[in-house]
């Protein structure tokens, strides 16, 4: 039985991932943006251990969340699932990029880290200067490349951790919309498989998966200078250094 924390688990892929992991006997702690969503999250996912609350648009709330996670920890697995798509650039940056950076840096190191990226990351810019200088130019694609770069940096710097990224496909959640063409079940199976950690294929690090298969990805994600620049810009913006572990 693993102890698993999932961000953005009041709905969509985060909720389905939590339900599936509970059915496999794992202990799951949920996360929602506020009290009302927290109650809905617990109602939708019977058997969840608890729900933690934080609006990830607010970096200070995200830092408090990390402290609460550590208070309940240690966790074996953290799934960075929360995300927004049609939102102002500052919100895209806060929820999709800075929250995973802050939580990764501040939460006591788990055994497994899973980051929700997207096939759309291929259209993102690997130079992170806009995070500091031109926030309004940040796109969803940029943020999904950021989170892949974060995953790659974690995998490189923290050899004791399995850190992997997932493209869930275009699936019919609130974000994906009712007409999304991909299989909803397949949209969370990879996260469950990586969290479960059974079999040598799931015990890898620095990979980018689509439906449990490794996929090619933006070459910028492996560029060490761009990775370091990304971490440095995140440090400047959040005031939190990426820890050596
Ligand atoms: N669906 C797709 O086709 C697709 C494709 C590629 C990648 N992805 C990625 O997969 C992940 C999950 O997406 P999804 O399709 O499940 O989306 P979703 O149904 O919209 O769920 C997103 C989750 O994130 C939470 N969230 C958003 N903003 C938040 C904030 N400021 N504070 C706290 N929680 C917040 C949402 O809470 P509320 O319910 O309260 O809003 C919800 O629980 C995302 O990272 C997304 O980028 C999805």
What does this structure look like?
The chain is α/β, with parallel strands linked by helices. It has a single domain, classed as NAD(P)-binding Rossmann-like Domain (Rossmann fold), CATH 3.40.50.720. 43% of the residues lie in helices and 14% in strands. An 8-stranded mixed β-sheet has the order 3-2-1-4-5-6-7-8, with helices on both faces. Helix 3 runs parallel beside helix 4, helix 4 runs parallel beside helix 6 and helix 6 packs across helix 8. The longest helix has 18 residues. The two termini are 25 Å apart. The model has no long low-confidence stretch (mean pLDDT 97).
Oligomer, anyone? single chain
Structural class: alpha/beta
How is the largest sheet built, in terms of strand order? 3-2-1-4-5-6-7-8
Q: What is the CATH architecture assignment?
A: 3-Layer(aba) Sandwich
Name the poorly predicted regions. none
Overall pLDDT metric: 97
Bound molecules: NADP nicotinamide-adenine-dinucleotide phosphate
- The DSSP helix count reads 8
**Percent strand:** 5-15%
């Amino acid at each position: 039985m693993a102890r698993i924390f999932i961000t953005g688990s009041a709905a969509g892929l985060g909720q389905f991932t939590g339900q599936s992991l509970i059915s496999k006997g794992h202990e799951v702690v949920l996360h929602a943006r506020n009290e009302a969503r927290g109650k809905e999250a617990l109602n939708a996912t019977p058997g969840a251990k608890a729900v933690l609350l934080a609006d990830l648009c607010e970096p200070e709330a995200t830092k408090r969340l990390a402290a609460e996670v550590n208070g309940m920890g240690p966790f074996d697995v953290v799934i960075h699932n929360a995300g927004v798509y049609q939102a102002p650039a500052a919100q895209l940056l806060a929820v999709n990029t800075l929250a995973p950076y802050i939580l990764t840096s501040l939460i006591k190191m788990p055994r497994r880290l899973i980051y929700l990226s997207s096939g759309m990351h291929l259209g993102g810019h690997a130079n992170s200067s806009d995070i500091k200088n031109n926030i309004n130019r940040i796109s969803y694609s940029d943020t999904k490349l950021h989170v892949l770069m974060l995953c790659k940096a974690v995998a490189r710097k923290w050899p004791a951790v399995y850190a992997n990224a997932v493209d869930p496909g275009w699936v019919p959640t609130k974000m994906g919309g009712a007409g999304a063409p991909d299989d909803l079940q397949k949209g969370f199976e990879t996260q469950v498989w990586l969290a479960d950690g059974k079999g040598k294929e799931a015990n890898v690090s620095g990979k980018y998966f689509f439906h449990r298969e490794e996929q090619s990805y933006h070459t910028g994600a492996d560029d060490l200078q761009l990775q370091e620049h990304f971490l440095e810009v995140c440090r400047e913006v959040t005031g939190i250094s990426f820890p050596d572990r």
